[in-house]
Specification:
- By secondary structure, the protein is mainly β.
- The protein folds into 2 domains: 2-20 and 205-305, Jelly Rolls (Sandwich); 31-201, Jelly Rolls (Sandwich).
- It has helices spanning 2-20, 161-164, 166-170, 189-195, and strands spanning 22-23, 47-52, 72-78, 83-88, 93-99, 102-108, 111-117, 122-125, 130-134, 141-147, 156-159, 179-181, 198-199, 207-208, 214-219, 230-236, 251-257, 260-266, 269-275, 280-283, 288-292, 299-305.
- The strands form 4 sheets. A 7-stranded antiparallel β-sheet has the order 1-20-17-22-16-15-14. A 6-stranded antiparallel β-sheet has the order 2-3-10-5-8-13, with no helix packed on it. Strands 11-4-9-6-7-12 form a 6-stranded mixed β-sheet.
- The model has no long low-confidence stretch (mean pLDDT 96).
Length: 318
């Protein structure tokens, strides 16, 4: 009887903890005042939905977001015709486009290289490189932004309209005639730098694990090099189930498509929850956890691991 009571109590604690580590998209809201530097400039309007930490927003006291460790995760809604002023961070900042087409510009010495990114394309903005983005398409852009520090410093602005005026700020600080279209084969130094940090979804090839899951490496060994995190797109065909594993760093799943059952195990107790599109699970380091797709269609999630070092984890069948 004592053993049964202990197991039930452990399960209740684990179940409560698992629920606290899930960010439900339907229970969140977009914050249109996340970035104070945008106030009074409608052309800079965008909204942030925080999942892990505050990212580039100063709203670190938001209790609806999960406490960060080595990275942050948020969604950004960018209306048509608006842009983000060129800025830089002391660490890496990744943009993963989910919907729409995003134009990203990198600036150095008055020159700007611009690239268009479509759904599931990503750019890892290098530390201390001025970068901005805009939506010049016909539909709103939704993207996930991941900053490579739990509490990054405030962004440093390089081309804000209050300093350079609206026309040059909209060009991310480019001098007239100094905007260059991205060319991965160019010898231009800024072109070469950007080319090493761009991931095209169409160019990725899957790595098939024994469990039947497919991983596409965006950042980390086999992808764009990083000193902070690893980032992968994981596809889970319906019927696939992965054996429980743990990591020596925290890990998040941001579900993009389908539904996924996730589970935690500890002290003989096992608990599970279901994730839907744009729900996020944050698993602390050392926690034994697993997932399976018992839905009616394939599932896909974007995974971020809070360490750049390979850990040998392979998804094995349950």
């Amino acid at each position: 009887m004592i053993s049964t009571t202990v197991t039930r109590s452990a399960r209740q604690r684990l179940d409560a903890d698992l629920k606290l580590h899930i960010g439900r998209h339907a229970e969140k809201s977009f914050d249109w005042d996340a970035f104070p530097a945008n106030r009074g400039y409608p052309e800079l309007m965008r909204a942030q939905m925080r999942y892990v930490g505050a990212g580039g927003s100063p709203k670190i006291d938001d209790r609806s977001t999960l406490p960060p460790e080595h990275f942050t995760v948020s969604l950004i809604h960018q209306p048509v015709g608006t842009y983000a002023a060129a800025h830089s961070h002391e660490i890496e900042e990744a943009f993963l486009v989910l919907n729409g087409v995003l134009t990203v510009g990198w600036e150095q010495n008055g020159e700007v290289v611009e690239i268009g990114l479509g759904p599931k394309d990503m750019i890892l903005n290098a530390s201390d490189v001025a970068h901005g983005f805009r939506n010049q398409g016909v539909e709103p852009v939704l993207m996930s932004i991941m900053v490579g520090a739990g509490r990054p410093l405030a962004p440093k602005y390089h081309a804000h309209p209050k300093d350079l005026g609206p026309e040059r700020a909209a060009r991310f600080g480019a001098e007239p005639g100094k905007t260059i279209a991205f060319d991965p084969d160019s010898d231009h130094p800024l072109q070469r730098l950007m080319a090493r940090h761009v991931v095209r979804f169409s160019a990725l090839r899957p790595i098939w694990d024994p469990a039947g899951t497919a991983r596409m490496i965006y950042v980390g060994e086999g992808g764009v090099p990083s000193q902070n995190t690893r980032k992968e797109l994981v596809t889970v065909p319906k019927g696939c189930a992965v054996r429980a594993y743990s990591r020596e760093a925290e890990e998040t799943y941001l579900l993009l498509d389908g539904c996924l059952t996730v589970g935690w195990s500890e002290a003989g107790a096992t608990v599970e929850e279901r994730l839907g599109p744009k729900d996020l699970l944050f698993t602390p380091k050392g926690r034994l956890h697993y997932f399976r797709n018992d839905g009616v269609s394939d599932a896909q999630f974007f995974m971020v691991v809070g360490s750049a070092a390979p850990d040998g984890v392979v998804f094995l069948p349950s």
